[in-house]
Amino acid sequence: MSKITTELLLERAVPRSTRLRKIETLNLSKLQLKTGDLDPRLFSRLRHLQKLDLSDNLLDKFPNSLTLPDLRVLNCNNNKLEDVTALKQFPLLEELTYENNVYLTLNDDYKVMFLLQNLRLLNGKDITKLANHVRRVNSRKLTSKVTAHWEKFFRDQLPEKHTAEQVKFIKKKFLKSVQTNVVYGPSSLSEFTRWRVKMIAEEFLAYTLGLEINTDTESEEDMDENEEESTEKPREAAEDMGQVTVMPSKRKRSNSKQGSGNKRSKSRANTKEEAVVSTRKSSPVQDDPAPDQPRTSNQPAREAAPEQGAEGTRKNEEPLPKGQSNRRSSQLTGEQKSQEQDNGVISLIPVKNSKGKEDVSAEPLHFLQCHSKGNSREDFKTQLWSCVFEPLLDCGARKDPIVSSSRTVATCGGESVCLIDCETGTVLKKYKVATEEFFSVAWTTLTMVISDSCKKSHNILAVAGRRGIVKLIHVAADFCYGEIKAHKKPIATVCFSPTRETHLFTASYDKRIALWDIGIPDCDYNFKASQLLVLEALSIPLRIALVPTCPDQYLLAGCEGSCFAWNIKLDKEQKSRPFEAVFQFPDEVGNMTTSHRVDGLAFLNDDVVVSKSSKPGCIYLWSWSRSFDTKGKGSQRTVSAVILAELEWSTTDLSYLMLSTCPAKDYVFCGDERGNVWMYNLSNYTTAWSSAKGKHSDKRIPPTQILKWPELQVNGEQLNEVLINNVVSDPTFTYLVVLTSVNITAIWKKS
């Protein structure tokens, strides 16, 4: 039986009423109402209702058939709303609030601004000017782009005399293509843009081909999710960010205690300061640190003991800035390069190759200075260490079959973690802990319960560093919901299991690798973390990698002293385990040895391991299956790595310059001590390596290309001595993110 009755409505009317048709103000807050409790037949009798309060309930959506023709004010705060498109049924709505609905985003703000033509106030902010821009300028730009896309790529595909089947095929193909390729505005609004593009495209087809318009504005895509991707990839130039300055007022989503509000405000206020770069040059890079310390560019690193009561140490008090979509930090567009060189902003001069031609296989997009300590403009010392692209979500109504790869990357270094849109260079979110130095980030996707009968997938970011504490951040809610005190010494790297979403590995300077079950937070962010396993190493683990063919059984780690393998199968009783094998590699004179630092480690495919050790100028590729006998008995075995090939690389003796791989494209990436990125396309070699007859060639494989570091100038002075600490591509190798020792994040895009 529904909780809402005629008697309840009359009683909750303000003032109380004797007839439903006379009610103008109604308060239905704090009744634990669910969507099914809103009976359309009963609500249809509220013909003159103008103000409705549904706050502090359990609504996840609105029924489409509520008949409230005169509704002007609606309060939906503190519910569990996932979609706002049903609000279009209230065309006279002037004031709308839905704060503290953690599953609603900036995209939903824009949707209601478009759908509700009379809306003036949204979450207490006057949005009149912004709404007019969304309804007029935004729509005009998108309509122009949709029309141009049809004219350029699809008009000639449809014959003059066409059948209904041909029209249906072209429509489906066009809708998918236009949503993929029409780009406008920042990445944070990409969902709204695709929603509008689909709507405009359907209207365009209805006018051009006489088709029926699909008036359903729900967020679900009506495309066949199993349909193969279109082989056509027309290019549509993204709208210059300088021309799109419309951003909504930041709304508050109070998922944390009020005590942290001032910190967020300060962070926002200082963000713009990062966009200007001073003339101060980077300090000289000194020798490598001691084996138990991370490298720094100005002084040997010292282990920082956690300070009691320091900022950012308390659970549930470290939300990210809400709805933040900062402008680009220390970056430039083509028009800005010449104009900003004399204004204290980093300027970019592309470096020519030996033939005097610019290398066109990849082009630099953005150079960002967004990890500055205290938002200082003069910080060219903060080292950037780790970056990982955000995984795509598969979460029911919000599933996005259009986008094939994420362009949002999480980067860490110094006291902050940033989420960056690689296409626009926008810093979408920033998370800071003043007493921390972050070394590693990792993503997982947790299936969280959002109501009694509904589950939803959300991306969770784990970050860790010098203090040995793992922070867990629910990115969509802009909320750091907890921490795990994993180690007493710094954490060098973290990674999640690809098969078990809650299993997190942490490798620490205490010479241990721990496996944690981080649990799944409930709707109030209560969670329980537990330690499942401890792997004992003989030296500090620097890089870890799970074996792709058996990620629940074996883990590899590149350490200060060698490369080790552990059996991590959880059906064993032994909770603390020694390594099962240590790998030998050739030294400089060709002798096999286990005494070498392995500071680069990744899998190129299911079998080929890529590792970088102390032998100068060399990166090894070796076979996991031929090197390690999984049926072998006994622990602490010494085995020789079966070398498949060697990659030619820099002859530097500097350590901690990380490598990475792009398995889908058979690429290996590694930076050097001169700011260059070495790229190796190994697709012509992998077939031979998969054969049991594949032999090691004495000839090193040269790089396919070396991306030269551009001349970055600060008021005419060149920024020198740049080390490339890390290089990571997205899964489709569209973007390449380069992290440096001088607090610069460089983003390249494959041409």
From TrEMBL:
Keywords, comma-separated and alphabetical: Centromere, Chromatin regulator, Chromosome, Cytoplasm, Cytoskeleton, DNA replication, Kinetochore, Leucine-rich repeat, Nucleus, Repeat, Telomere, WD repeat
Bias (Acidic residues) ranges: 215-230
Positions of WD repeats: 484-518
Keyword Repeat recorded: yes
UniProt biased composition (Polar residues): 323-344
Chain ranges of the Leucine-rich repeat and WD repeat-containing protein 1 WD domain: 356-750
Pfam families reported in the protein's UniProt record: LRR_LRWD1 (PF23211), WD_LRWD1 (PF23215)
Keyword Nucleus among record annotations: yes
Region called Disordered, residue ranges: 215-350
Annotated GO biological process: chromatin organization; DNA replication; establishment of protein localization to chromatin
Domain Leucine-rich repeat and WD repeat-containing protein 1 LRR stretches: 7-200
Protein's name according to its UniProt entry: Leucine-rich repeat and WD repeat-containing protein 1
Source species of the chain: Falco tinnunculus
